[in-house]
Specification:
Helix content is about 30%, strand content about 35%. By secondary structure, it is α/β, with parallel strands linked by helices. It has a single domain, classed as Vaccinia Virus protein VP39 (Rossmann fold). Helix 1 packs across helix 2. The relative contact order is 0.16.
Length: about 190
Amino acid sequence: MLDDKDFIKSCDVPGPTKEAIRAIILYKSEVTSSDRVVDCGCGTGGITCEFSQCAREVISIDTNLEAIEVTKSNLKKFGLGDNVTLINDDGANALSNIDDIDIAVVGGSGRQLKNILDIVDEKLNSQGRIIITAILVDTKVEAINKLKDLGYNPKIMEVNVSNGRVLDRGILMISENPIAIITAKKR
């Protein structure tokens, strides 16, 4: 796993997704070296960088041009990216031109989650997997309900990672990146 502190960051771009969260996402995705992964809402590219190390191909999408540039910089910094395509576009629009998806990671939907999930469902291979990360309760509910409507049996995991800092009188635990990870497999 790449270390959080090594990522190039930007005040105007969310991320990177914390290391422990990226590890869970990779584990839950069951990624293989033959998988084609789409990272919708790539932010600074934390998830893109991790998947690029173990998937056949990664397609990363973000509406924010700066996010695409920061992701490109992080890929270069870590010596990754030969198997990565970066797309600066609306998630739904970009996804409509992508076929044969094995894993779709949706971290940013620009209020188009239902539409994005409809498109992902059409483009997902028969054993495909969907992973949605959500911070807002409303997004969690929307994702679960939409996946159920599409015939999936979604699972949700709420993750709160805390890292400790040793002080003179004890250890202070600081929560980082509380997030829900919603997973579903095509039936």
